[in-house]
Amino acid sequence: MQLFYYDIPSAQSTKLELEKQDSRHLTKVLRKKSGDTFHVTDGKGNLFDATLGLVTSNRCEIDLAFAKAEPPPSPSLHIAIAPTKMNDRMEWFLEKATEIGVSTISPIICQRSERKKINHDRFQRIITSALQQSAQLWMPELKDQQSFDQFVKNHDAQQKFMAHCMDGTEGYLGSQLEMGSDTIIMIGPEGDFTPDEWKMAITMGFESVNLGNTRLRTETAGVYTATIFQGLQLLDLK
Amino acid sequence: MQLFYYDIPSAQSTKLELEKQDSRHLTKVLRKKSGDTFHVTDGKGNLFDATLGLVTSNRCEIDLAFAKAEPPPSPSLHIAIAPTKMNDRMEWFLEKATEIGVSTISPIICQRSERKKINHDRFQRIITSALQQSAQLWMPELKDQQSFDQFVKNHDAQQKFMAHCMDGTEGYLGSQLEMGSDTIIMIGPEGDFTPDEWKMAITMGFESVNLGNTRLRTETAGVYTATIFQGLQLLDLK
């Protein structure tokens, strides 16, 4: 059954009113009619059975019945990634990381970043769309963009990695991951992190890792990381 | 150093002539000049040190010196995938699968495929571009499109999987993979494989597997599969 994301006050909510934009999208673009049923999530783990109620030209009502709650994804994966020069590459990463499953995404502006500014609203819409399409109940949190320095100084987790291709002496991400631990992984821009950034990250407790034997683009590295992290938790080999 | 792919007669070749299109691309678009050095691969494991020689308006010569040979990727991964309705999604898969590493890609037309025809030359150009960008020496082989039936009846490997989301009783791909074995994995179209296709695959020795807990788009499933396959070989945990 089709799943929609809406901002819902609480798991006890039984009614939701959609204003102009969301209402028109649901009733005009997607052609839902009064009486149609679908699923709704609040992006915070709750699923609702939903029935479209009264529809007027600019708004509509949805009747909600709580169906189930899912605990947050654990362990959590936080990917900090330098936005790519070409926006569509970053948008692919956002869509795919959401499909595969990631808890938090932080756009970080690095010394070699060619793109210094992101469109947060557009990024959020892509994540929301991917959440709905992949039928998940926890929306990845999209942080505001921040500088590499700010990010490194202000974020901690049980394990912290920096993926890069500086000299090849690092361990492979998959070998270094501790199963069951909340994890931060940083991925650099097209020109990689600088030696200064590398030093700062090491000082702040990040471990330097590689992502295998081939040279991956930034957005590929992001999707690769999400896949290996989720895949290894499922295998639970360690 | 920049890597270019050209069709080269043998590892002993010491000279290569580029005709109009390739020559103009190298000298006009990429602005290489006589005397410039770069790397060249034949896509069959051989790397050459290359120097641009004589350049005329419509052709150029490249001097080649054999540098090294790499054995073919082993174990091999052959992904058979239904082309997506939207071409850009399939093209994204081709680029990412090439970056991460895959030996063979077979576009398969399934019962529920909305796209019945691919542009083989365009697909090949995307793979070539990704090969060069990711600095690899083995070009993934792009097979001609074929029907699901043809594919299933005519291809074998040490292990063969069908990834789908039919009922959820299958094992996880990562758990079922035997390390070190040449592998075929089939990925279905947007509407998944049909029960008839599933039965035929099982009869022909394919094992049904899932790709984790979330619902992945076709192209995401392809990239996910390549990542898990390569990642587990690197871990060599089993």
TrEMBL record, chains A, B:
Residues 18-63 form the Ribosomal RNA small subunit methyltransferase E PUA-like domain. Residues 74-230 form the Ribosomal RNA small subunit methyltransferase E methyltransferase domain. The keyword Membrane does not apply. The keyword Nucleus does not apply. Keywords: Cytoplasm, Methyltransferase, rRNA processing, S-adenosyl-L-methionine, Transferase. It comes from the Bacteria. Its EC number is 2.1.1.193. GO terms for molecular function: rRNA (uridine-N3-)-methyltransferase activity. One of its GO terms (biological process) is rRNA base methylation. GO terms for cellular component: cytoplasm. Pfam families: Methyltrans_RNA, PUA_4. It is an enzyme of class 2 (transferase). It catalyses: uridine(1498) in 16S rRNA + S-adenosyl-L-methionine = N(3)-methyluridine(1498) in 16S rRNA + S-adenosyl-L-homocysteine + H(+). InterPro entries: Alpha/beta_knot_MTases, PUA-like_sf, RsmE, RsmE_MTase_dom, RsmE_PUA-like, tRNA_m1G_MTases_N. It is found in: Cytoplasm. SUPFAM superfamilies: alpha/beta knot, PUA domain-like. Specifically methylates the N3 position of the uracil ring of uridine 1498 (m3U1498) in 16S rRNA. Acts on the fully assembled 30S ribosomal subunit. Belongs to the RNA methyltransferase RsmE family. This is Ribosomal RNA small subunit methyltransferase E.
